[in-house]
Every structure is written in C-alpha cells, then in structure tokens.
Amino acid sequence: MKKMIIAGLIALSPGVVMAANIGNCGWGAKVFDGQSGVAPQVFAATTNGTSGNQTFGISSGTSGCTQDGTVTSTWKTAMFIDGNKKQLARDMSQGQGETLDALASLIGIDQAQKSKFFHLTQEKFTSIFYSEDASAADISNALKTVMSSDSELAVYAANI
User: Fold this and answer.
1) Are 129 and 139 in contact (CB under 8 A)?
2) 1 pLDDT more than 90
3) Which range marks the domain in which residue 23 is found?
C-alpha cells in the first residue's frame, strides 16, 4: 500500500510533469541520456532545474537545446560532425570512408543499409554541406532532411 501511495505522489509531482517536458535538452538530459523510466526523468529535470542550465541552453542554443521550440537530441551527431567536418565532407563527396562509416554507426544504420546511406550522402552532398560555413547543427539538420526523404533510410533520421 505504501508503494502505491508513493508511486501516486511521484506521478503527480511537478518534477514528473517537468521531466516529461525536458526532452533531450540541458545537462540533465546529457547525464541521464539513454535511460528510461520515471526516476531518470525526475533526476534529469532536477539537474536542469537546480543548476538553471536548461534555461541558459535554450537561450544560447547549447546543451542540446534549440531556440526554435523544437526539442532535439542531436548533440552527439552534431559533436561528431563538428569534430570531423572536413573528413566527413571528403568522405561524403566520395561516397565512402572511415568517417562516414563512423557516422553511419553513430546513427545506428544497419550494416546492410550502409552502402545505400553512403550513396545517398554522396548524391545529396551539396544539400548536406550546402555552405562552407554551415554549422554542425545545420549539417545534421540537412542530413536528417535528406534521409527523411528516402523510404528505407527515413527510419534512421530520428537518430540524428
């Protein structure tokens, strides 16, 4: 009976409501990335709430937060792209390479569909790397758009 009461209080607590809305933004979302359930959500919301980092992240567009009202989890992909931009551009333009393969693995593309991914990124290279000064987030978003337009690879676009 005690467990049911405690579970009910947790379910009704503002922390859970706040946690359900944190998405993948702020330090709490980074610390508890990949974990599911009420407890990690509450801890993530608490981390964000006590340090004020989510508000800063939304204002500055950092910590996985965006200023367009969309909560995304592109920070891993964006960090990878940012650290490997030149090599990734070279690999995508050639439709092969170690950096492109690593990106495919990071996104979770099955081995059987990697060649299709490589071909698509080569074919749509100018849409993905549309500007020399495009940010990692811009490149990630462009890649997501390109992949979303392909019937077989669209399922992976959510992982970007």
Assistant:
1) yes
2) no
3) 2-60
